[in-house]
Amino acid sequence: MPIVINLDVELAKKKMSVADFAAAIDITPANVSVLKNGRAKAIRFTTLDAICRVLDCQPGDILVWVEGDERIEGDGDGAGVAGTSAEGLS
Q1: In this structure, is residue 81 part of a structural domain?
Q2: What would the pLDDT profile of 50-78 be if each residue is shown by its tens digit?
Q3: Is the pTM of the predicted complex or chain greater than 0.85?
Q4: Which residue range is the domain that position 54 belongs to?
């Protein structure tokens, strides 16, 4: 996927644990993991807003477009695993 999620970098800068971060933005630690590992297919603007508010950053600090790496769903890379829908990241 050409969109890279730098959530782990921002969490490290703030020295914040996944559990504390999940509680602060009101999503499960499992869904934070889905975001951190780049397995999310979508993210709600309300969730992105909460992330930016808690980490005191801009969306561009979290989401970065990278040219290349154009995997498609079903190519055997594990894309489409359970818990990656937009509903799970509210």
Answers
A1: no
A2: 999 999 999 999 999 999 865 544 434 43
A3: no
A4: 3-70
